[in-house]
């Protein structure tokens, strides 16, 4: 995408959530919807990855962004994909989808709860034993947001910094932040050894990281994502001679989950 030539739009044209609450008086943003890479340079069917090219992805349960990332790497010709989520059955079903797209891709899966160190150690060992290298690690898992109902019955995030249960706060931290930290630590040596590849780590953060209100997510979710942004900076700075580490926010992506509120007028 040529950003110089991208269609810039005025914030005043955006839906109220973005215009009034998130961006404030920021002047311009890029085009509202980059919803699909179809047909463009970033369309995975138009990307030809070198061989070998091995990707490990956390949080590839049966739905969500992690699954799409895996299928996109399959389309782009990755030679190896290691899937993982807490449910082995989910990971297996995604593995079948990957195989259907790219039969020559070696796809493996491992049940891994990133908040459990022994699971993360097993994931890293599986990657080394099965593929002997790692080119890209994607840390995608998250503790799902919990929504309550407001007085009109509309779904809302827990509103106040003191409204969340201690248990929820610790879970968000263990899954989002600490799970990613732990997986980075265990996968880093293999990435460092894969010198003829991109040696890249990608953390799924969120726009909500920069937002001190709970309109988009609970305080614990938002703060765990803020910490992930800084974690990416630390890893990138410390290992920059060989490894790239970035945190990205994916925008607002509709996932296949009826419990997550979605308003097409807002997003
Ligand atoms: N969707 C959006 O609009 C949006 C916006 C901003 C940021 N993001 C970020 O993008 C990423 C993907 O979001 P999504 O919307 O696709 O979420 P999602 O559908 O809830 O997917 C999260 C995945 O994480 C897995 N998971 C949950 N806890 C885990 C744990 N302890 N260990 C390992 N895996 C675990 C789940 O699978 P199992 O249950 O099988 O383990 C699930 O597949 C997240 O990091 C999210 O914060 C999403």
Automatic annotation (TrEMBL):
One GO MF term attached to the UniProt entry: oxidoreductase activity, acting on NAD(P)H, oxygen as acceptor
SUPFAM superfamilies: NAD(P)-binding Rossmann-fold domains
Pfam assignment, any one: adh_short
UniProt keyword terms in alphabetical order: Oxidoreductase
Gene3D superfamilies in the record: NAD(P)-binding Rossmann-like Domain
Keyword field contains Oxidoreductase: yes
InterPro entries recorded: NAD(P)-bd_dom_sf, SDR_fam
Family per record: Belongs to the short-chain dehydrogenases/reductases (SDR) family.
Protein name: NAD(P)-binding protein
